[in-house]
Amino acid sequence: MRSSLLLGSFTVGLRPVLAGLSALALAGCGSTIGDLAAFNAPGAKPAYFVDEQQIIPDEDSRLATLNGEMLQHFNVVLIVNKAASGEHAQTMMVMRPTSSGCGGCAWEASDIWDVSTGREREEKYFTTTPTGVYQLDQSRFHRDYTTTTWDDAPMPFSMFWRYLEDGGITGFAVHAANDNLIKNLGKRNSGGCIRLHPTNAEALFEELLAEHKGRVPLFDWNQREGEVVRSDDGAMRMTAGLRALLVVENGEDLDYIDAQIPPEELVAGEGSDGGNADESSVEG
C-alpha cells in the first residue's frame, strides 16, 4: 500500500493495517473502471476498506454523504471514529483511493492511528468534538501553537479545520498530544480537538503541506455536512486548499463486514453523467 506516513518500526499509537484480500481485490480497480466519468458522478458511491473489512456507513452517517463528484478532487480522507468504545473507536483511519482521481472507486486505509477526541461533557467549556465533513485550512497550519482557551496549553503541529459558528472561526484542530497525554490516546480525553501521537501528527502535517495542495470544491463553512457551493449552472465552485477531507463520525453509524470484491453498483452510479467541475468557477 502506498503511504508516506508509514513509519517503519517507530509507530507508537499505530494499529497495523492488514493488506490481505481487500488489497488484492482492489488492485485492479484503476484498470477496469472504463468510463471514468461514471465514477466521478454525483451518484457514485465509493467503497471503504480497513483491516480486511469493508466499512458500511449508515444512510444518516457523515461518510454516506461523500460521492465521486466531490472525492475525485481529494487524495486523502481522514475518518475519525469518536465513539468511546466499539470497533475502531478513538482512531483515525487514513484512507487513500485505489485509483488516483477516481472518486467513486474504492478507498483503503493505509494507516490507523489512536486518537483522543473530546471528553463530551460540560466543563469550563463544552468538550465536544463535532461530527461532520470538514476541509483542513492550510492557512491555519502551525508547527508551534498555544491555545488561549485551555490555560495556554501547547498544540504542536496544529491543523485547524474550516468550520464557522455564528460567522466566526472555531478553534477545532488536529494536533499532536503533549508528552504527558500520549498515554491517553485511544480514549476520549481532549477539550474537543483531535489529538494524535506526535510522530503521526508531524508526518501528517508535513505530507499534507508538501504533497496535497491544489484546487478543491468550495464548502459552505457554516455547515458540517460538507455541502459544496455551486454556481448557477450547478457546477461546483472551486478554491485553493488541501486535497484532504476530515470526516468525524459518532461510531455507531459505521458497520464493518468481511471485505469482498466491491460490485460495480457499490462504486459507480448507474446511468450517471460525468461530474467534473467547471474549472472556470473558482474562488481564492
Query: What oligomerization state is this entry in?
Result: single chain
Helix content: 10-25%
What is the CATH topology? L,D-transpeptidase catalytic domain-like
Whole-number tally of structural domains = 1
**Beta fraction of the residues?**
25-35%
**What is the ordering of alpha helices and beta strands?**
EHHEEHEEEEEEEEEHEEEEHE
What is the CA-CA span between the terminal residues? 34 Å
| pLDDT < 50 stretches | 1-33, 262-284
Q: How would you name the CATH homologous superfamily?
A: L,D-transpeptidase catalytic domain-like
Q: Residue-averaged pLDDT, rounded?
A: 82
Helix-and-strand structural type: alpha+beta
Please report the number of helical segments: 5
Provide the CATH top-level class.
Mainly Beta
Largest sheet, strands/sense/barrel: 12 strands, mixed
Could you describe the 3D structure shown?
There is one protein chain. With 284 residues, the protein is of the alpha+beta class. The chain has a single domain, classed as L,D-transpeptidase catalytic domain-like (Beta Barrel). The chain is built from five helices and 17 strands. Strands 1, 2, 3, 4, 5, 6, 7, 8, 11, 12, 15 and 16 form a twelve-stranded mixed β-sheet that branches. Strands 13-14-17 form a three-stranded mixed β-sheet. Strands 9-10 form a two-stranded antiparallel ribbon. The relative contact order is 0.24. Residues 1-33 and 262-284 have low confidence and may be disordered.
Helix/strand layout:
Blueprint: E1 14-15, H1 20-26, H2 36-39, E2 48-50, E3 53-57, H3 68-71, E4 76-81, E5 91-97, E6 107-114, E7 132-142, E8 158-161, E9 164-165, E10 168-169, E11 173-176, E12 194-196, H4 198-211, E13 213-217, E14 238-242, E15 244-249, E16 254-258, H5 264-267, E17 282-283
Parallel strand pairs: 2-6, 4-15, 11-12, 14-17
Antiparallel strand pairs: 1-6, 2-3, 3-16, 4-5, 5-6, 7-8, 7-15, 8-11, 9-10, 13-14
